[in-house]
């Protein structure tokens, strides 16, 4: 038995009499995920693969959502400092073949998450004393500065350093536009096809809450827009983009000046893949050409934001 599998056995033995490690599902730092059986039932065990992983926070977030909202999440069976076990979901993820009705459903579901969660401040989430707790960062402008600043640190001394600094400077210069967002909500942070499980046309589970935090729900909508329409091939994407926003706004009104901030969010989200570009540049053809197109995208989006804010 490999050591990592032995570690899973030790965690399962803490609360289950009968258990089995079936197979490794994912091994993407800083997490390792396994299919397991607990007391005869299929389940998932997610554990930290390094100190950067925080599965306990993810588990507490799902417990919080199950207890306080109508958002469908897997039921948590057990949680420790560096792992959790949750029920298995048999339903299939969204495969990118959306229609307009499905896009509206996804948008409405995301808005429901934001509408049914409310916090006094933006911030990062953590597990504290067995509960979901907030590491307060202040206004949405403060939180956004913390996020972008962290990503800029990752981009330091790289071909994207200037692009990152331009985004950070823009956020700081337009702080008032983000401080105006006064209703912090729980943000999923990775609302994408693989994390939305369907049964027929109904969403029955939203999974992978490892990136969740508290901030502006509109940021989540922009990330979903990118995940569904920029990184996946879908037909009639313009109509579908409108449908997911239409579904969102059927539940929750977007704040004034969203269309200006949207361009800033798009530029921020472009920084994310830049952080891993050097590791993956062999997969993108002409790396220099792709890198320049990414930087040009940020320049264009910030210019559009400047015109609207």
TrEMBL record:
Pfam families: APH (PF01636). Gene3D superfamilies: 3.90.1200.10, Phosphorylase Kinase, domain 1. Residues 33-238 form the Aminoglycoside phosphotransferase domain. SUPFAM superfamilies: Protein kinase-like (PK-like). This is Aminoglycoside phosphotransferase domain-containing protein.
């Amino acid at each position: 038995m490999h050591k990592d599998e032995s570690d899973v056995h030790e965690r399962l033995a803490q609360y289950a009499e009968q258990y089995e490690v079936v197979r490794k599902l994912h091994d993407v730092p800083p997490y390792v995920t396994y299919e397991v059986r607990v007391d005869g039932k299929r389940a998932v065990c997610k554990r930290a693969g390094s100190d950067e992983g925080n599965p306990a926070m993810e588990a507490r977030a799902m417990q919080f959502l199950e207890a306080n909202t109508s958002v469908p999440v897997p039921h948590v069976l057990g949680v420790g400092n560096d792992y959790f076990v949750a029920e298995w979901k048999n339903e299939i993820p969204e495969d990118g073949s959306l229609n307009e009705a499905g896009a509206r459903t996804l948008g409405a579901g995301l808005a429901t998450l934001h509408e049914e969660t409310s916090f006094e401040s933006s911030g990062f989430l953590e597990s504290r004393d067995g509960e979901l707790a907030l590491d307060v960062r202040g206004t949405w402008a403060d939180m956004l500065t913390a996020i972008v600043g962290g990503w800029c640190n990752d981009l330091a001394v790289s071909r994207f350093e200037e692009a990152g600094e331009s985004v950070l400077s823009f956020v700081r210069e337009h702080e008032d536009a983000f401080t105006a967002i006064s209703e912090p909500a729980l943000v999923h942070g990775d609302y994408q096809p693989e994390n939305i499980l369907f049964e027929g046309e109904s969403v029955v589970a939203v999974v992978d809450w490892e990136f969740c935090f508290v901030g502006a729900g509109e940021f989540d909508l922009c990330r979903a827009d990118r995940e569904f329409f920029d990184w996946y091939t879908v037909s009639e994407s313009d109509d579908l983009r409108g449908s997911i926003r239409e579904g969102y706004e059927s539940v929750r009104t977007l704040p004034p000046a969203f269309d200006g901030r949207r361009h800033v969010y798009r530029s921020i989200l472009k920084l994310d893949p830049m952080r891993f570009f050097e590791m993956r540049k062999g997969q993108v053809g002409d790396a220099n050409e792709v890198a320049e197109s990414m930087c040009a995208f940020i320049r264009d989006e910030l210019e559009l934001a400047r015109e609207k804010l």
